[in-house]
Design a protein that fits this description.
This protein has 165 residues and is of the alpha+beta class. It has one domain: Hypothetical protein (Archaeosine Trna-guanine Transglycosylase, Chain: A, domain 4), CATH 2.30.130. It is built from 4 helices and 7 strands.
């Protein structure tokens, strides 16, 4: 699925190359429920911001994937080889992803930014030359939140809590 201008995009941080490998192998992104932005399961796409651990690709967004669905899982189910992990019982959103796509042009950051998640649009992601151009402001942000709240209410009325169509 191609990124379209009206798409709602979650920019998610990938801290380590091993996490990027896990994302590619599982076609999923995990977010601890206690740290998740409330709108995370209701976006159209997830794009990935690489930290300093990525060397020359650090502080950039180079790939995105469509969100296919989500489920709530315990960490122990994601990593059965770590049954004694201190957060083994913690709940995570497991965002199920479609095929990974490269951005036509990477979005770099001229300076280091610390963030966990950003919401933006497909248009901004496709046109940005710097990370600072991505965050929504003012009326754009209010409209996006309103639209997502409506989707959440519709979703909740359906009573479906494990996947998104």
């Amino acid at each position: 699925m191609e990124l379209f201008p009206e798409a709602i995009v979650l920019i998610a941080v990938v801290r380590h190359p091993r996490d990027w490998q896990w994302i590619q192998e599982t076609r999923a992104y995990r977010i601890p429920l206690r740290h998740a932005p409330p709108l995370a399961p209701f976006v159209d796409f997830v794009a990935f911001y690489y930290t300093a651990a990525f060397g020359p690709e650090r502080w950039s967004i180079r790939h995105y994937a469509p969100l296919r669905g989500y489920e709530l899982v315990r960490r122990r189910d994601l990593f059965p080889e770590e049954p004694d992990h201190p957060r083994a019982e913690a709940l995570y959103y497991l965002l199920q992803l479609g095929p990974m796509q490269p951005l036509p042009q990477p979005v770099a950051s001229r300076r280091w930014h610390r963030f966990t998640f950003l919401l933006t649009t497909g248009e901004r992601l496709l046109q940005a030359s710097d990370l600072s151009e991505l965050p929504l402001e003012g009326i754009e942000r209010q409209l996006l939140r309103g639209a997502l709240r409506e989707e959440i209410q519709t979703f909740n009325r359906r009573g479906d809590s494990s996947t998104r169509s």
